[in-house]
Amino acid sequence: MKLWKGRFEKTSTQAADEFNASIGFDQRLYEEDITGSIAHAKMLGRQGIITEEESSVIVEALKQILEDIKEGKVQFSMESEDIHMNIETILTQRIGQTGKKLHTARSRNDQVAVDFRLYLKKETGAVDAALAALTETLAELAKKHQDTVMPGYTHLQRAQPVTLAYHLLAYYQMFSRDRERFADCLTRIDRLPLGSGALAGTTYNTDRQFLAEELGFSKVLPNAMDAVADRDFAIEFLSCCSITMMHLSRFCEELILWSSVEFAFIEIDDAYSTGSSIMPQKKNPDMAELIRGKSGRVYGDLMSLLTICKSLPLAYNKDLQEDKEPVFDSVDTLKASLGIFTDMIRTMKVRTDNMEEAARYGYMNATDAADYLVSKGIAFRDCHEIIGRMVLYAISEGKALDQLTMEEFKEFSDAFDEDIYEKIAVRSCIEAKRSQGSTSFDSVAKQLEDISK
Question: Both 154 and 93 in a single domain?
Answer without folding.
Answer: no
